């Protein structure tokens, strides 16, 4: 098994270095030779633009592919959905080292010079490995600021947010990774494209009378979105209301009786291809909703007001913009907004 590359000697930052501040918890200081990030409470030093990176979650993978960096990826892991439209050809060039969390050893077999992840838990105890384990081998790591900005991941489950997540934090992640890989202009271009799509999707829409519920996975003890993660970005951008905006947990598990009592106007349903929970696909979710005596009389179920989203659109990623577009289109189709 090849070991990860040892850390190179640190280089001094030039006096005229440029300070680049991403949104969320990341700040980047860069020169031609090196980048230093303050990322989720960790100082990350990248001596040169990575050439052999591993991305441990689909969210970070799709950012890197969107930046045109397939040839600098040594491996990807943890997929909930098919790759984003337009990226299949690039993605096919990159080894998929695992469908879910790979072992630490499997990642090291890819000989990474940089490791990125979407979630604190992926690079924490019980995940692939801790950030410290990689850093001891000279491999810098990066975690999406969306999973740490205003968020407490210390308890069980998927954490809780003291502060609502903003789409600017996702844009900040794009800029961070573009800076690390030395493709800043590509990052700016990608962010500008996402901003235009957000503006187009939300232009003139007022969903203030519409209630939504977001169901990610599991029919036995379902994971429903709380107020303040990626579904919160979607909800607020449209002016709607999440029926579970009274909880700050990211994905609390809520019983069906409570769901039926809240009786939302629209059900936003995760359409996942992974197979780690019950009712992953939208088809299985809808079959459950329409057959279960507790849920089949809900207004959204009776009127089949379902909006189907990828798992990535329901997590804080660049595909959250896709989530805004699809929910906005659904509300218009259902005649709930103009």
Condensed summary:
The protein has 338 residues and is α/β, with parallel strands linked by helices. The chain contains twelve helices and 16 strands.
Q: Can you describe what's shown?
A:
It is a single chain. The protein is an alpha/beta fold and 338 residues long. It has two domains: 18-197, Rossmann fold; 204-333, Rossmann fold. It is 31% helix and 18% strand. The strands form four sheets. Strands 7-6-5-8-9 form a five-stranded parallel beta sheet. Strands 12, 13, 14, 15 and 16 form a five-stranded mixed beta sheet that branches. A four-stranded antiparallel beta sheet has the order 1-2-3-4, covered by helices on one side. Residues 1-25 have low confidence and may be disordered. Keywords: Signal. Residues 52-338 form the Fe/B12 periplasmic-binding domain. InterPro entries: ABC_Transporter_SBP (IPR050902), ABC_transptr_periplasmic_BD (IPR002491).
